[in-house]
Amino acid sequence: MNLPRVSAVAAGSAVLANNEVSEMRRRLRATLTCLVSVLAFTGCSLIRTSSVTPDATPGAASSPTHSPTAKPRTTRSHPTQEQAFDQLIAQQDRVYRVIAPLIVKNAVLCKTAARPLLGFTAKNRYSYPAELRDAAIARLGTDEALRIVQVLDGSGAQRAGVQRGDALIAIAGKPIPQGPQAETETARVLAPLLRQTTEVDVALLRNGQPMTLKVALTTACAFTIDIGNAPHVNAYSDGRRIMVTTGLLAELSDQELAVILAREIAHNVQQHAAAMQTRATMAAIIDTLLPPTPDLSGFAGSAGLKPMDEKLDQEADRMALYMLARTGSDLLSAIATLDRLAQRYPATVLNSYTALHPWTGERQRQMRDTLAEIRKKQAGKKPLVP
Q1: What is the pTM of this model?
Q2: CA-closest candidate to residue 160, choices 104, 116, 203, 102
Q3: In 45, 155, 234, 362, which residue has its Cα 20 to 30 A from 74's Cα atom?
């Protein structure tokens, strides 16, 4: 997740050489590949910062350059950088908190998209835009070693006592890589291990003291969520990723945000981008909005997207209501949220959520029918499955 005010390239850099651009693209592809196992911490984060070229030589080995016990290097973070970093973390925490119950309590609905996950994200300084790396060290102690940044509510990691700021030493006896490639290298090492067990030993360093916690894996929906640096109020899903814009985040309460996230999870589970033949376009939009200062010139119109087929939107509405019900959410808020968005940002507002998902009378009727169906199942103590 990025802030639109920071540059994706370190200050003083001129034009990236071709090999640097290729390396940036390679790192982005590797990150997206491993993100199918989000929250397992297989080297990826549920919520990503921008893909940036590391300070070190591209392609350099990710062998440890500092011990986690070593004192972090001296930093020169500016107060404005630290303020920007604090805002970044606050946004990440908010989305992480809102999406947590949706992905943990709906694994049965996510079907093949569910995975056994550890339930935390871990980053080092290379995980952040170059301008925020010193601030990351100052705020979190995040230097070469991967340190815990977020812990998923309701996960095995939370129950085991994993905390923000813990430095990762080893998982299941496998040493955790450090340096510029630490996240992708950790993904490569851990992915096969996490498919073969239900719990792992996680060796940590907390306040200079080593400890080992036994963490039970948590089966959850394995979609990643990105935050797009754009003022328009919208959300996108390409079948494996979800993006909400900063404009949408500013507009919605947590309860309303949960409604949109549930709908986007449902679109991914039901592979609606593929059905609409918009997967490539959705993916390109998500990639475009990832950098801190994206090129928004292509968003003057519809950004190449056509409105979602109403029947597909109805399918997403139905599954989203069940997902929200399984988390104990107020289901009436779902209808109210979509109604409010349609009034404030109608379909005539290009690149709005309602332009992409027209709010029709038939959708409203179908959601009310689904709401009555869910309440009947709740009263009869029947499984909340569509």
Answers
A1: 0.78
A2: 203
A3: 45
